[in-house]
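Weekly modeling sync, notes
Attendees: S.R. (lead), two postdocs, one rotation student

Agenda item 3: backlog of single-chain predictions. S.R. asked that every request posted to the team notebook include the full sequence so nobody has to chase files. The rotation student volunteered to paste the first one in as an example of the format we agreed on. Action items at the bottom.

Example entry:
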Amino acid sequence: MKKLFLALMAVSFVAAQSFAAFSSAGVGTTGAQFLKIGIGARAVAMGEAQAAIANDVNALYWNPAGLNYMQGREGSLMHCSWFDDIAYDNISYGQESEELDGFIAGGISYLSMEPITKYDNMGNKLNESFSASNALVVIGYAREIYDIPFGASIKYISGQLENERSTAFAFDLGTRYDLMDGKLDLGAAVQNIGTKVKFINQEDPLPFNIKLGAGYKILTKGNPVLVALDLNLPIDNDPYVGLGGEYIYSFSGDFRIVPRLGYKSGAKGLEGLSGITGGMGFGYKQYSIDYAMAPYGDLGQAHRVSINVAFDAPNE
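Predicted structure, as returned to the notebook:
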């Protein structure tokens, strides 16, 4: 089974080489760009390094194999206040399924923005406006095969610009592997394999991406420190890395505070602290609330708040 996992990793690297010709020269050649907006405050605060460490219902969006690590039934809500009055909201739920001998999860994401003012061909402002939005519906399944976690998800993607609509279908595949008694985790995921996005007469491919990652856990006086690193190989940009860490400090038994810091490379043309991310998590028993902030230079900052509940986690 170790050979099988290594073979899967090798396939991912070979596939990455196949797409080596697609670099920054491919910027702007893919559709459904909202799929690149990270879901979950924890993930974003850690530089989106999640391929090997995503272990809750939000693994559905990073590496579906991570659904194998859910604690029974889990639910999540997220609100993202992006720049330019753009809002991105998500609701997800997952649980273990004895009938399917694995874990199932589903989620809905919706991106909306303020009405956009219309202009005529001469650049004159009109007393009219139009709306734009995007939606994503995901269903995922994960299980262990010969003690190796695997996962897959299928996506329905839609977009609307005034009276015009676009649709597409895609799926993700992922696997995980634990080493050193769970201290070292490896992960690989292939994201957005699917149909082209058709809008009126224009067709564009989805933002295909290969995600390879590793995570390492260090125990410091009983409080774990987790560091993670992801390598991303997108079809429409240069390869980039995500690096992140979190420190889980527990006190009084039921309470925990989790500071997080991350870095995401590839923020070209943006000033200031672009690429650096950070946030904080607060937990009580099976409940947690997380915050993340990601600066985008002159464009502004993106703020996320997530609420997660592990319904079947120990309540004491």
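Discussion: group reviewed the output briefly. Residues 2-18 form the longest helix (17 residues).
Action items: rotation student to repeat for the remaining queue; S.R. to check formatting next week.
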